[in-house]
Design goal:
disordered N terminus; single chain; elongated; mainly alpha; 6 helices
C-alpha cells in the first residue's frame, strides 16, 4: 500500500522517501527544457560561486578573529553579507524550483537538499538574531557562524553532487540516443 504524507498530497508531490525516484532521471524531458530555458538557472549559476567565495573569505575572517581577537567588524560584516547572499540564493532557488518542477520547495529531485537548506537557513538566522539582540557574546556568535558555515558546506556539497549526477545522466542519455 502506498502512503503519501498529507503535506505531499497537499503540494501534489510524490513521496520523496520512496526509492523508485532514485532510479529515475533527476529531470523529466519537460523539466530539463524548463531548466535549460529559464533565466533562473543562470541566476543560480552566478549566485552560487559568489556565495561560495564570500563564504571562504568570511570563514577565514571568522577563524582569524577566534584565533587572535582581531578583526571583529570585518568578520561580522562578512557573515552578514554571506547570510544575505544565502537568503537571496534561497529565494531565487525557490523561484527556479517552481519554474522547473512546479513547486517552490521540496521537489522530489531536490527534497533532501531543500530539507538540509532549512537547517542552514535556521542557523544563519540564529546568528543574525544573536547579533541583533546581543544575547550571545561575540566569540559565541562567531562559533555559531562557523557551525552555520559547516552546514552550508555540507549543503553546497549536496548540490554539487546533484549537479554532477544530472550531468552524468544527461551524458548517458545523449550517448544512448546517439547509439540508437
Amino acid at each position: 500500500m502506498h502512503l503519501t504524507p498529507y503535506w505531499a498530497k497537499t503540494l501534489n508531490m510524490q513521496n520523496p522517501l520512496q526509492s523508485d525516484r532514485q532510479n529515475q532521471a533527476l529531470y523529466s524531458a519537460d523539466e530539463r527544457v524548463r531548466r535549460d530555458t529559464t533565466r533562473w538557472t543562470l541566476v543560480q549559476g552566478v549566485l552560487a560561486p559568489v556565495q561560495f567565495a564570500v563564504f571562504l573569505i568570511s570563514a577565514v575572517l571568522v577563524v582569524r578573529y577566534l584565533q587572535t581577537g582581531e578583526g571583529e567588524m570585518a568578520a561580522t560584516v562578512s557573515i552578514v553579507i554571506k547570510t544575505l547572499l544565502l537568503y537571496t540564493i534561497m529565494v531565487t532557488g525557490c523561484i527556479w524550483e517552481k519554474v522547473v518542477f512546479g513547486c517552490y520547495l521540496f521537489a522530489p529531485s531536490f527534497f533532501w537538499e531543500d530539507m538540509f537548506s532549512m537547517m542552514v537557513l535556521a542557523l544563519h538566522t540564529m546568528y543574525l538574531i544573536s547579533l541583533y539582540t546581543g544575547n550571545l557574546p561575540v566569540r559565541e556568535q562567531m562559533v555559531l557562524a562557523l557551525i552555520a558555515y559547516a552546514t552550508y558546506a555540507i549543503n553546497a556539497t549536496q548540490f554539487i553532487l546533484k549537479l554532477r549526477a544530472a550531468r552524468l545522466q544527461s551524458a548517458k542519455q545523449f550517448t544512448q540516443q546517439v547509439a540508437a
